[in-house]
Protein: Phosphoglycerate kinase
Amino acid sequence: VTRMSDLDLRGKRVLIREDLNVPIENGRITSTQRLDAALPTLKAARDAGARVMVLSHLGRPKEGQFDAESSLAPVAKWLSDKLGQPVRLVADYLDGVDVAEGEVVVLENCRMNVGEGKDDDALSKKYAALCDIFVMDAFGTAHRAQASTHGVIKFAPIAAAGPLLSAELDALGKALEHPARPLLAIVAGSKVSTKLTLLENLIGKVDQLIVGGGIANTFIAAMGYSVGNSLYEPDLIPAAKKVIAEAKRRNADVPLPVDVIVAPEFSAHAPATVKPVDEVKDGELILDIGPETARRYAEMIAKAGTVVWNGPVGVFEFDAFGHGTETLARAVAASPAFSIAGGGDTLAAVDKYGIENEVSYISTGGGAFLEFLEGKELPAVAALRARAGK
Ligand code: 3PG
Structure:
């Protein structure tokens, strides 16, 4: 794949697809993680003397109409502050944009364009005609085959991978394709059903798999224990059993909780009780792993060569049920392992426990991170490979 860093950008019209899909409340950006990650790419292109056009989506507006809620205006303002120069937001750009050398402009939300979601060739060709070089840097949207992430790659004069996309793929490749062992994955979240493909793919690669949250509850039920009134999926007990059997066959370890924290209701102030995993009663909800389990998992993390973390192991939004997630977060932070964390809830936990500088790599991908862990080829990456003739 051609990389942006291989190209001479001076004077060139460079269209860069970023994922600037950040949460905005009342016009204020509430997390700048994706902007922080994209900024070095934009600075590099600007400093190289490119005429920079930034393309991104924000939310999921209807195509063919302007939606003020989904405008990239706050993002353009943020970029202007960080780049120390005016950054124009261009609303009408499909028939061409004037951009000076060293200037950076933001093109309004690409999902307002008709044909974006359907990966329409006519729109893809319009994007391609805007530029001399198209740079795909939006790892967070690389799992979408849309006109701005996929179609345009077919038609642009030159298509390249940006530094952020390259860094994400390098980090994920290091973690999953050539991992320092033992390779330990933490897969947590509410449902086995949404992460089954991921569990099935990872169990073929990892040495240790820690499951948490509602996923762990289904595994606990698969062992024949009661989970009381906890969230779990009875239909997926056979799937959980298959994962456990495959782990045995491969000599991989899927430790299950020995103790859990239960409460009579799902609320921040519900009384939290530690219980052995085989003593959960009707009416009780498992809301976290217990302290002995957390201690054992932390020990495994300390000895791992690589840690891939997706999902909190308890309801960490409520402090009374955050001990397990906090213990694991601190263990990841302290471990010499190469660690990678991704997914919205995981990043919220990383943020809450202030370990962002201790994790080796924090992915900007939500869905894209999960699809990579599922072993799927991301359509945008496939398109870049096809362009490079590989
Ligand atoms: C994300 O937030 O995961 C990406 O920006 C993709 O957004 P989408 O799920 O609306 O395609």
